[in-house]
Amino acid sequence: MKKFSIVLLVLLVPVMLFAGGGKDAETSDSLRPTVRLLTDATGIDDKSFNAAAWRGIVQFYGDTLDNTAHRGSHYDVVTAQTQDMYIPNLRQAADEGYDLIVVTGFTFADALNQVAPQYPDQKFAIIDVDYVLHPNVVDFIYSEEQGSYLVGMAAALQAKEDGVENPKFGFIGGIPGATITKFEMGYVQGILSVFPDAEIVDYYANDWGKPELAKATAKSWYDSGVYCIFSAAGGTGNGTIAQAKEYRMAGRNVWAIGVDSDQYEDGIYEGNQSAVLTSMIKRVENSTIKALTDIENGVFAGGVVKMTMEDAGVDYSTANPALSPAVIEELENAKTEIINGSITVYATYRDALAAGAVPEGLSALDD
Length: 367
Fold this sequence. Notes:
Keywords: Cell membrane, Lipoprotein, Membrane, Palmitate, Signal, Transport
Protein name: BMP family ABC transporter substrate-binding protein
Order of helices and strands: HHEHEHEHEEHEHEHEHEEEEHEEHH
Structural class: alpha/beta
Number of helices: 12
Largest sheet: 6 strands, parallel
Family: Belongs to the BMP lipoprotein family.
Helix content: 25-40%
Main location: membrane
InterPro entries: BMP_lipoprotein, Peripla_BP_I, PnrA-like
């Protein structure tokens, strides 16, 4: 796993070249970059960023989640049960000489800010953060507004197909700020592309971990005729899915939309029936694949990298069979138009208002 093993291999290269195996040696598994994923206590089974980052790492080496053949020799993962282990785990991985160290989420930002300058030759990647600005760190962020446009459009098209007259839609955010605004702006623009006069309500819980707040709000909104609610609120948003499940089990035609990862399974209430119509997905796996590929090609560079729809950085889920083929076809057309620039999705409330793309009176904040 450590770099000194690569030095030994380099010493053998002349022999391999003499034997006619030089090309194979240069592309052999043993010369591929090594990586360690460091996670918080939720580990790689979090159904979110950690799981997706791990999936990308495994895929890079040609393995599968069921057959991690290169684990231990090329990649591994260490989970910190408490935040006071973040810095020691970062230092240990750097001392062991991995080519790349990957962390996910803002909870690692302070630790990485402290450790990265101490190891200037060590390469790091952090997911969903854009303010750990060191030359040896790549910060991956995402065009959430683009994926959110598609799930908003999906909700509106599904309502249209269901024959719902004057459908209402809701958005629940965690703590207001620029990132969550991107989710809301994209969602609202997607809805209004189908129903220009649709009524939209929003609510910010000012907390990432209180699902009871989202559940109570979702119940009130569904009772008032809201058809679909998109939550970008961390664990708080699980309350929306819970309420949607209860009401769909009772025969109510309401929906929730998942976020960051595919939450279809979280919404299952009977057989393959799920209360999660679709999800706005961040393809974090493609970020870890990109970072490793850049190292392998000798072009790794620190800085902020935005993963857009064109980069396969954001997408929507088609896992729920209730999402009709006709709706999916329209979403795929819109996806193409976002990529080629025919559809512009505004990421800030300021810009969206100036373009007349969203209504006034929403609770979103740009800062």
